[in-house]
Amino acid sequence: MLDALGTAIASGELPPGSVLRSEELQQRFGTSRTVAREVVRALEGMRLTSSKRRVGVTVREQADWNHYDPRVIRWQLGGPGRQDALRTLTELRSAVEPIAARFAALRATPEERGKLGALASRLESTARARDLGTFLGHDVAFHHVVLAASANPMFAQLSDVVAEVLAGRTGYGLMPEEPQPEAVALHVEVATAITAGDADRAERAMRDIVVQARDEMAELFE
User: Fold this and answer.
1) pLDDT reported for residue 202
2) Tell me, what's the pLDDT at 53?
3) Which positions ≥6 away from 161 have C-beta within 8 Å?
4) pLDDT of residue 222
5) Cβ-contact 59, 17 below 8 angstroms
6) What's the pTM?
7) Residue 204: exposure state from Cβ atoms within 10 A (0-12, 13-18, ≥19)
8) Structural contact between residues 44 and 4, judged by C-beta atoms closer than 8 angstroms
9) Any long-range contacts for 122-130 (C-beta under 8 Å, 24+ apart)?
10) In this structure, which long-range contacts are made by residues 207-215, counting pairs with CB atoms below 8 Å and at least 24 apart in sequence?
11) What is the pLDDT of residue 73?
12) How high does pLDDT run on average in the chain?
């Protein structure tokens, strides 16, 4: 029920101003009042809707939504506005991840540096095997460690956002059929730079990763 309503809102099928009534939702989805109430509470938590007595549940303007919520991102990537969603998310990555890599080079713990080196090696081996599913898991973990290693909790909390972008690109066929050697080499470069404590090199390599991702998506949408 939550996925159905969230998808409908994110896709514009239920535009801002649409009113949802609890009784109608219960009948439509065959759920209890308690379930309907929990779903509405979840939508309100994402700021997709607001509730008023005697009015019902109203879909809010897109500007009000919590665009950092992974579920909102997932629903947007699954709808007709996928291209715009990917553009804005890539712009966010461009602003954050290179700086996070810079700080990771300065602040990462020995354990985090070791994790990045190990993940870079796994990315190389799964890329050679053309195992996109396993490659995605290592890629998500790699970016999570970089963001966490920046020792900036606000950057670290964006790891779920980045994970949804990476998963969305793979799930919707917006990745090359096999990982590009250049992209894999850049991940290795980021890991090597962070391990060496070279902030400039780490920032530059991460920026190149994001730019390459942006260019690959631009080609697909031409």
Assistant:
1) 98
2) 83
3) 68, 70, 73, 89, 92
4) 62
5) yes
6) 0.88
7) middle
8) no
9) 123/179, 123/184, 123/187, 123/188, 124/184, 124/188, 126/179, 127/178, 127/179, 127/181, 127/184, 130/177, 130/178, 130/179
10) 207/94, 207/97, 207/98, 209/97, 209/183, 210/90, 210/93, 210/94, 210/97, 210/98, 211/94, 212/180, 212/182, 212/183, 212/186, 213/90, 213/93, 213/169, 213/183, 214/90, 214/94
11) 93
12) 92
Query: Could you report the per-residue pLDDT of 85-133, keeping only the tens digit for each?
Result: 988 998 999 999 999 999 999 999 999 999 999 999 999 999 999 888 8
- The number of residues making up the chain comes to 222
Give the strands of the sheet with 19-20, arranged side by side.
19-20, 56-59, 49-52
The pLDDT of residue 221 is above 70? no
What is the Cα–Cα distance from 213 to 78, expressed in whole angstroms?
A: 19
Whole-number pLDDT of residue 118: 97
Please give the single-letter amino acid code of residue 178: E
CA separation for the pair 130, 170 (Å, rounded): 13
Q: Angle 159-171/70-77 helices, nearest 10 degrees?
A: 20
Beta strand extents in the chain (DSSP E only): 19-20, 49-52, 56-59
d(CA 151, CA 153): 6
User: Which two structure tokens, joined as six digits, stand for 97?
Assistant: 């991840």
Kindly list the distances between the CA atom of residue 84 and the CA atoms of 11, 26, 37, 78, 221, in Å, as whole numbers in the listed order: 12, 33, 31, 12, 11
The more confident residue out of 172 and 138 is: 138
Residue 182 has pLDDT above 90, yes or no: yes
